[in-house]
Amino acid sequence: MKPLLYTFRRCPYAIRARMAITISGIEVDQQEVNLRDKPAALFECSPKGTVPVLKLADGRVIDESLDIMQWALAQ
Q1: If 52 and its partner were Cys, which of 1, 16, 17, 45 is the partner (CB 3.0–4.6 Å)?
Q2: Which of 25, 30, 2, 19 lies closest to 68 in space, CA to CA?
Q3: Which option is the CATH number for 4-74: 3.30.565.10, 3.90.1210.10, 3.40.30.10, 3.40.50.300?
Q4: Domain boundaries in the chain?
Q5: What would the DSSP string read from start to end of 11-60?
């Protein structure tokens, strides 16, 4: 199972997280979030309901863009 990235295409924080993931060559599934109608699954991962949020295959959640970048670049 690939990690799942909740993202929004125009969010600068999500953009930098996606860039780090792409540069790292990591394959993730991406779920584009409609910010006016956020899915319940997003809130289950991160009660803040902000993007980006990365849910890893082992169930861990990373919900800050800088932390996602550090994780991706360390892989």
Answers
A1: 17
A2: 19
A3: 3.40.30.10
A4: 4-74
A5: -HHHHHHHHHHHHHT---EEEE--TTS--HHHHHH-TT--S-EEE-TTS-
Q: What confidence tens digit (pLDDT) does each residue in 2-32 have?
A: 999 999 999 999 999 999 999 999 999 999 9
Amino acid 39 reads P
Q: What is the pLDDT of residues 29-71, one digit of tens each?
A: 999 999 999 999 999 999 999 999 999 999 999 999 999 999 9
Choose among 19, 27, 24: nearest CA to 56: 27
